Structure of Enoyl-CoA hydratase:
Amino acid sequence: MSEYETILAERKGRVGVVTLNRPKALNALNSQLMREVVAAVEAFDADAEIGAIVVTGSEKAFAAGADIKEMQSKTFAEVYSEDFFSEWDRLSAVRSPIVAAVSGYALGGGCELAMMCDFIIASDTAKFGQPEIKLGVIPGIGGSQRLTRAVGKAKAMDLCLTGRNMDAEEAERAGLVARIVPAADLLDVALDAATTIASMSLPIARMAKEAVNRSFETTLAEGVKFERRVFHSTFATADQKEGMAAFVEKRTPKFVNG
Ligand code: CAA
């Protein structure tokens, strides 16, 4: 029996797949689901056999947001004291690359969860939005910050202030989404991308992720310096020697993750 009730966690080769599984609530993110997603992703991250992770939902909903029914009666003192939603921050500390495969609704916390992943592959049915304002709250899992960095101030303000959704085309044009694929192909394409990532050197893939993420935290000059030092450090790995030797010898590299 699975140790999880609100998600499915399975391995597909070197890829860990986490599927949100509360279909009756359109995968609304309640506390149990939050704990289970974080635990499953962290377990895959700690597993040396796993090189990348896919987070996905159902065809109708990646996730329709934080669970409104669970939140409804909470008081300020409660949400403040328990630092409600802060557990999600642990996903940002995960070092393995994470691909979000998004079909249907990715609203509120659903959009925020997708944005905590490293990139989003969307089906042509995907709908993104931060509709919290319609409930008398604002985004609480980083939406106002990550959406603004992804799509710029104009569209982030539009979405956060009007609560409207944007479709996959608009999201791709705006830079939120890396690729759009037909709904029927979504999981295959996401798995393919994750499998490609997992076939690279794991430490080097993590360095690439770390370097891109640093761009959100620092100035350009500091970020370029950070990148340069990490680039230099790749030369301390066996995988740099193997990758370049394989190119010169016109063969496929055999990375040893070291
Ligand atoms: N929380 C709790 N339950 C939810 C939910 C949510 N976010 N979204 C949907 N559900 C439940 C519905 O209550 C319904 O349950 P019942 O059958 O028991 O009534 C079931 O899922 C199916 O939903 P609908 O009948 O509403 O389905 P629909 O196809 O008519 O509409 C929808 C789909 C447009 C996504 C609509 O469900 C909706 O608007 N959901 C809420 C979206 C939202 O406001 N999200 C933001 C939440 S706040 C947040 O996320 C804060 C944050 O920053 C983290």
